[in-house]
Design a protein that fits this description.
Number of strands: 11
Helix content: under 10%
Oligomer: single chain
Shape: globular
Structural class: mainly beta
Order of helices and strands: EEEEEEEEEEE
Length: 120
């Protein structure tokens, strides 16, 4: 049971990247998914989240209007489309899946992260 991120890389300021978070061994139907990031020397920062039903999304103020979180249940994958990237977006991006309240015991899965580097 795991989540695996992919899609990171090096991009110039103003460019775009798309990240993917794929679930293995479980389905996102029962999980809310959140993208976090951590820059060197910084704390983990919530970037964007999508509810279990996919109806609700939340974004950090720093990425509103530039990033979009979405999911494809048929592919058991959550995406993070990042546009108008800035050097300040440089970080390792992590995917977290958190189980719905009705699942017992609760579970939370973290990926290993994918590096995003934005050059100026």
């Amino acid at each position: 049971v795991q989540v695996v991120e992919s899609g990171g890389g090096l991009v110039q300021s103003g460019g775009s990247l798309g990240l993917s978070c794929a679930a293995f061994g479980f389905t996102f139907d029962d999980y809310a998914v959140t993208w976090y990031r951590q820059a060197p020397g910084e704390e983990h920062e919530m970037v964007a989240s999508i509810s279990r039903t996919g109806e609700n999304t939340t974004y950090a103020d720093s990425v509103k209007g530039r990033f979009t979180i979405s999911r494809d249940i048929s592919k058991n994958t959550v995406y993070l489309q990042m546009n108008s990237l800035k050097p300040g977006d440089t970080a390792v991006y992590y995917c977290n899946a958190r189980s719905a309240e009705y699942l017992n015991p609760p579970s939370s899965y973290w990926g290993r992260g994918t590096q995003v580097t934005v050059s100026s």
